[in-house]
């Protein structure tokens, strides 16, 4: 049950931020996401912060994708802290009501996710902590990393495709997600091959 909860939080947070970033950059904002605003870049442009808005959108895509595909839950959760902080400052500066409360809830979920990986943080605080205090988790391989990265690259490529053909762009997104989820299988296959040859 605990493992399922961690997975559910990771997927929910990932979908929330990945979808939000994609919606900001997709042609005519034709991408599904439940938080916004999709017009953030246009809202920031008059202040000379259009590029900053694009940076937030790309950060949301990469960080959210780490979480929604669940391969890099810890990395995504760590990077989520400054991301939510940045978005919070923007929303307070622009005097948006309600958004800080939504962000507080998302931050709470993120902290729950980080708590599950607390054994990784002890060496950052106490340099004398040994590596055997870190719980064993399933190994990841270079092949799996490359498979996952190709899925992420397809997400970013789909943004360009959306300006020409939305259904094809959506197809590229789906292929990318499938590829990234298959990265776990790529790990397993590589580990099994190594075990057989040794």
On the 0-100 scale, what is the average pLDDT?
Answer: 87
Q: How many β-strands, per DSSP?
A: 0
| Biggest sheet record | none
Measured by DSSP, the beta-strand proportion falls in under 5%
Element-by-element helix/strand order: HHHHHHHHH
Outline: globular
Structure write-up:
It contains nine helices and no strands. The protein is globular and about 55 Å long. Helix 1 (2-25) crosses helix 5 (99-115), helix 4 (73-93) runs antiparallel to helix 5 (99-115) and helix 7 runs antiparallel to helix 8. The protein is 71% helix and 0% strand. It has two domains: 1-137, no CATH class; 138-198, no CATH class. It is mainly alpha-helical and 198 residues long. It has helices at 2-25, 40-44, 50-68, 73-93, 99-115, 122-125, 142-161, 166-181, 183-197. Keywords: Membrane, Transmembrane, Transmembrane helix. The chain crosses the membrane at residues 47-67, 74-94, 100-117, 145-162, 168-186. This is DoxX family protein.
